[in-house]
Amino acid sequence: MKVGFATLGCRVNQYETEAMAEKFIKQNYNIVKFEDFADVYVINTCTVTNMGDKKSRQMIHRAKRRNPNAIIAVVGCYSQIKPEEISKIDGVDIVLGTRNKGDIISSVNKVLTYNNKVVEVKGVLKNKVFEDLKIEEYQDRIRAFLKIQDGCNRFCSYCLIPFARGGVCSRSPQNVIDEVKRLANNGFKEIVLSGIHIASYGVDLDGNWDLLKMLEILDTVEGIERIRIGSIDPQFFSNGVVHRISSLKKLCHHFHLSLQSGCDETLRRMNRKYTTLEYSSIVNDLRKHMRDVSITTDVIVGFPGETEEEFNKTYNFLKRIKLSKMHIFKYSQREGTKAANMDNQIDGKIKDIRSKRLIKLNDINEEEFISRFKGKSLDVLYEQKLNNTEDEYEGYTSNYIKVISKSSINLQGRIISTEILRSNSDHANGIV
Ligand code: SF4
């Protein structure tokens, strides 16, 4: 039997797809590309934007076209929010919510045996148990994503995630530590800690656990050379945290600090819990303690009520603080959120104009950041040989600059000091 996966959305979804794929391998399935013929297709969906829903539906239709007799399983955030809508789509056999992904094999077996539709969606708002979807055998042996947390208690006014993923559930600390040791023993060099809101790690656990304490312990695990954290709430860095993390040897100097808006009025409507002044003081503090730090962010344009003046505040704020990369999103009205019912929804054309202005600003800032390192040597963890005739290898620095270097010797899986020769819009060329 063959199974193909399509994954939309965040790193947590990518992790969970890998964990589900492993369950299929254990049942002797062959993993094939989603574009290929398969007996089972699993679509791990995202519902953060309307576009996420649309793409998820497109994937369902594509799977059905490729093999009209395949079992089609739709899992994840979109399934959690709209199980009935999905189960009515032609060809869908299985619908599993965000905390039911571990049931994927038994669900496929039920369809094979009884030829019935399976819809299993646990309520997430009261469910505080971390679904321990483990990965025993990672596909590559260089960088491993490790999900340490699920859910979010923040309820930003535009976001459906707390409804799709529920409240904060943390993976048990001993389980995280054992897993990182196991990965180190298996030769992994870099661990990426991921979750939906990892700054909240430990709030649901006994024993005063938090992300900082976890990072300090993981920093001592022998064999692991880099620990990277995914997107993180700026508030994690208040109260002297910057000073403490700056002494960690393995923590990568790259932080994805979600900003969303550079205007305080907009931030308040978004129900974000910081001001632009607090945000910029965290940025300054990080830059003071880690001179090479890369700070990246997400920005939403066209949030309800965002006037030209408010957008200009965001633009000028971002021009001033010059982050090394920004992901620009056009606000997407999500039914069931507070923002969806706010007055003054913004026209799509205005969102387009604002998005283009910020993308242009990002291109300038990104190139400027990379070019700061021209002529300097940085440690690069090379992850793969590129599929071209040039003997080129691609890897990342601790501060997440993509570096491509030519080499006649195999660089894959090695951390090598590399001189940065040239900067391009989204990567640098280096020489080892
Ligand atoms: S912090 Fe806000 S945007 Fe992020 S997952 Fe939680 S509610 Fe959504």
From TrEMBL:
Keyword Phosphoprotein (UniProt): no
Keyword field contains Thylakoid: no
Q: Which cofactors are reported in the record for this sequence?
A: [4Fe-4S] cluster
Say which domain of life the source belongs to.
Bacteria
Using the record's annotation, list all stretches that form the Radical SAM core domain. 138-368
Q: Which UniProt keywords apply?
A: 4Fe-4S, Cytoplasm, Iron, Iron-sulfur, Metal-binding, S-adenosyl-L-methionine, Transferase, tRNA processing
Reported EC number(s) for this entry are: 2.8.4.5
One Pfam short name: UPF0004
**InterPro entries annotated for this entry?**
Elp3/MiaA/NifB-like_rSAM, Methylthiotransferase, Methylthiotransferase_CS, Methylthiotransferase_N, Methylthiotransferase_N_sf, MiaB-like_bact, rSAM, rSAM_horseshoe
Task: Please report the stretch or stretches of sequence annotated as the MTTase N-terminal domain.
Answer: 1-113
Question: Molecular function (GO) terms listed?
Answer: 4 iron, 4 sulfur cluster binding; metal ion binding; tRNA (N(6)-L-threonylcarbamoyladenosine(37)-C(2))-methylthiotransferase activity
* Catalysed reactions listed for this entry: N(6)-L-threonylcarbamoyladenosine(37) in tRNA + (sulfur carrier)-SH + AH2 + 2 S-adenosyl-L-methionine = 2-methylsulfanyl-N(6)-L-threonylcarbamoyladenosine(37) in tRNA + (sulfur carrier)-H + 5'-deoxyadenosine + L-methionine + A + S-adenosyl-L-homocysteine + 2 H(+)
To which protein family does this belong? Belongs to the methylthiotransferase family. MtaB subfamily.
Q: What the protein does?
A: Catalyzes the methylthiolation of N6-threonylcarbamoyladenosine (t(6)A), leading to the formation of 2-methylthio-N6-threonylcarbamoyladenosine (ms(2)t(6)A) at position 37 in tRNAs that read codons beginning with adenine.
PANTHER family xref list? RADICAL SAM PROTEINS (PTHR11918), THREONYLCARBAMOYLADENOSINE TRNA METHYLTHIOTRANSFERASE (PTHR11918:SF45)
Protein name from the UniProt record? Threonylcarbamoyladenosine tRNA methylthiotransferase MtaB
Species of origin reads Clostridium fermenticellae
Q: Which gene encodes it?
A: mtaB
